Model the fold of this input.
Amino acid sequence: MNNLIKESFEVLKRRRNLVVFFAAAHIVFLVFGQWAVSEKIPFVLDLRAQQLKEIQNLSYLKPLTGLLAESLLAKIFYTFFFNLLLGAFFSTTLTGAVFFIPYIIAVFRGFIIGILIFGMDSGVETLVVFYGTFLLEFGAYSISSAAGMDIGLSLLWPMRKKTGLRKEAVRIAAQDALKLYVLVIIILFLAAVWEMSWIHYLGPIKLPTPGQ
Done:
């Protein structure tokens, strides 16, 4: 296990430019989203109101307040697997075959989170829950996005992996992605524990109402 984690960090070091690129995209567009709301840009305000209204009825959140509400462990594993499969693998790594899609998703996620949290309760507990979760989840998504982008770039430019064969380049990139996913899994599990533990005992984060 120690060797596997060590290999994962070695791949992470080689892919650090892509990881930093995606982390920056998340942060920059989160800040941009907050700025756009503060400037009262009509399109952004309409989008924000729509998102705040719809977020309460999102189907994937209902088990957390329904069937799984009483079990912290169940909520942790539900959140972990949802974020791992849909949040990371399908949306940021698998789409990397078209190498720019993970970037579009990072921009969209950062922007939407930015417009949603503007005006959020600024109490210490809320900030601890939100920013702790944000740093862990979006850190993991930056790594999974880098893994996907690396596969896409290797398909486009096989010499990136020091081979002229696209099939071989993609194979090497996929092996690197598997190693990176060791870190993605660890970080997303920690994020699920952090988020669900706080919410289980303190209650959900209070987002602004659509009219705010």
